[in-house]
Amino acid sequence: MTRSLGGFGFFSVLALLLTTACNSNPLIVEITDCPAVGFVRYANALTSFPEGAVPTANNVAYRAVMSNLDVDCKDRGEGIRTQVAFTITAEPGPMAQQQDVSMPYFVVIAREGDSLQAKTIYTASVSLSGQDGRGRSRETVEFTIPTNELADTYLYELLIGFELSNTQARYNLES
């Protein structure tokens, strides 16, 4: 024997499903004590030119890009320790003159998007003698943001980018 919900039963089940669906958010948002971490737009790529060369595609010595960002964050009582790892991949350009290149990059700690708390400059070294002509370096940096009752660490950001010359920054903006 088959039983039908009839008109009223069907609408009751439909209303129950819609109410349940409306009350649940499909996005899972997790609030943590970790700062936001990301690459600075237009500074996560570096195009290097030989000294004195006009910055054109034909004069590129090498290109590098930052990617594969991994973040690990732990509360250590006296502060939030944030370890950030990322990959720098470099490839030679038409004017490549060297097999090993060094490139400076920075990590900035900012609070609420406009207050610079600290800036540290590092140097990555990459060998361009890989099988495909590319080289890679996995960089890891670590910061501790002190905490107290008045400081909310989620208001902090860690921003990463290449330390660019004016010529390199202009080239990134125009490319």
Question: What does this entry look like structurally?
Answer:
By secondary structure, the protein is of the alpha+beta class. It has a single domain, classed as Immunoglobulin-like. The chain has helices at residues 6-23, 166-174, and strands spanning 36-39, 45-48, 62-75, 79-92, 100-111, 115-127, 135-146, 156-162. The strands form two sheets. It has a four-stranded mixed sheet with strand order 1-8-5-6, with no helix packed on it. A four-stranded antiparallel sheet has the order 2-3-4-7, with helices on one face. Strand 5 and strand 6 (115-127) form a beta hairpin. It is elongated, with a radius of gyration of 25 Å. Residues 1-21 have low confidence and may be disordered.
Radius of gyration: 25 Å
Strand arrangement within the widest β-sheet reads 1-8-5-6
Strand content: over 45%
CATH-derived topology: Immunoglobulin-like
CATH class: Mainly Beta
CATH architecture: Sandwich
Inertia-based shape? elongated
| Uncertain regions spanning at least 5 consecutive residues | 1-21
Number of domains: 1
The helix count comes to: 2
The total beta strand count reads 8
The H-and-E topology, N to C, reads as HEEEEEEEEH
Task: Give a short account of the largest sheet.
Answer: 4 strands, mixed
Average of the residue pLDDT scores: 79
Q: What structural class do the secondary elements suggest? A: alpha+beta
Could you tell me how far the N terminus lies from the C terminus, measured between alpha carbons in angstroms? 71 Å
